[in-house]
Amino acid sequence: MKVAVLGAGAWGTALAAHLAPKHDTVLWARDPALMAEMAAKQENAHYLGGVALPAALRFEASLSAALAHAADDASLVVVATPVAGLGALCRAMRDEARCVPKHLVWVCKGFEADTQLLPHQVVAAELAGHPSIGVLSGPSFAREVASGLPVALTVASTSAVCRERALAAFHHGAMRIYTGDDVVGVEVGGAVKNVLAIATGIADGLALGMNARAALITRGLAEMSRLGAALGGRPETFTGLTGLGDLILTATGDLSRNRTVGLQLAEGRTLDDILLALGHVAEGVRCAKAVLTIARAHNVDVPITQAVCAVLFDGVAPRDAVHALLRRDARAESFGAKGAGA
């Protein structure tokens, strides 16, 4: 089949590398110089340096051309921009390229910072009435996927056709795809786990031990589940790949950008310095305020997220934020939508 991947960051490049050996795949970014460099070197030196890209992968700097490549009913368009760029790209497809894909999936994780919208709400607002859209998510580091290591992901959509297209595109080689229709649950898991990974990084950076890490992950899962249920997600989704699976990976893996932010905050570095040195998007920083705002609007207790926001934005020292969590009153363990927090 024909596939267009829109966005040549680490994740978009990794997915394109997985797709190209089996499908006629085009990778798009708006920078012609970047596309020319990647085509010449068969490498994304900035985001995935040292990983050779398949010879079959083609590169395109024209959005119209990339969309035309995957315009028929048997094709698929994959949006791999960060959440912050999702709305603008949807508008560009609609207004500039005048070519809305027949089947569209996105892979970004988080809430839109200003509007507190989930990705599917952003897409619905810009491409109203589109019948075949969905999200691809799960525990995945781009470098491992680009290197051909095993990974399991979930595609969620209310459209059976969209799920079939995504399954046909991605389910091969070392990538296993599961399907479902709980778009809200999948997206909430993908957003909240990034915030919780910052918290776990802080705990590890402060050398609080494995007991503390296990407690943060477990109670973080409860926090994710409560918020997700309040927004309409199904409880079982949060114990699957896109909830618990993604949380474990992002909170413990050395390739996790959000965990790295937490580790370096614990060392006393400023957030600005951390993000400048990181050079990649850390979605947990972008969406932490949105998670807290939404939780308060739905009367959901999210103490770990609140502690992360205090460190990120209010100047609270990491160790003081941890002590505040530990001083919370004892309570029954709860996973309900509006139950007690960590």
UniProtKB/TrEMBL annotation:
InterPro entries hit by this protein: 6-PGluconate_DH-like_C_sf (IPR008927), 6PGD_dom2 (IPR013328), G3P_DH_NAD-dep (IPR006168), G3P_DH_NAD-dep_C (IPR006109), G3P_DH_NAD-dep_N (IPR011128), NAD(P)-bd_dom_sf (IPR036291)
Binding positions (NADPH): W11, R30, Y47, K109, A142, R257, V281, E283
Residues given in the record as sn-glycerol 3-phosphate binding sites: K109, G138, S140, K193, D246, S256, R257, N258
Glycerol-3-phosphate dehydrogenase NAD-dependent C-terminal domain span: 182-322
Signal peptide: none
Catalytic activity: sn-glycerol 3-phosphate + NADP(+) = dihydroxyacetone phosphate + NADPH + H(+); sn-glycerol 3-phosphate + NAD(+) = dihydroxyacetone phosphate + NADH + H(+)
Record: active site: K193 (proton acceptor)
EC class (word): oxidoreductase
Transmembrane segments: none
Subcellular location: Cytoplasm
Domain spans labelled Glycerol-3-phosphate dehydrogenase NAD-dependent N-terminal: 2-159
Pfam families: NAD_Gly3P_dh_C, NAD_Gly3P_dh_N
GO cellular component, one term: cytosol
Enzyme Commission identifier(s): 1.1.1.94
GO BP, sorted A to Z: carbohydrate metabolic process; glycerol-3-phosphate biosynthetic process; glycerol-3-phosphate catabolic process; glycerophospholipid metabolic process; phospholipid biosynthetic process
Binding annotation for NAD(+): G7, A8, G9, A10, W11, G12, A142, R257
NAD as UniProt keyword: yes
Keyword set includes Cytoplasm: yes
Its job: Catalyzes the reduction of the glycolytic intermediate dihydroxyacetone phosphate (DHAP) to sn-glycerol 3-phosphate (G3P), the key precursor for phospholipid synthesis.
Sequence similarity: Belongs to the NAD-dependent glycerol-3-phosphate dehydrogenase family.
Protein name, entry field: Glycerol-3-phosphate dehydrogenase [NAD(P)+]
Natural source organism: Trinickia dinghuensis
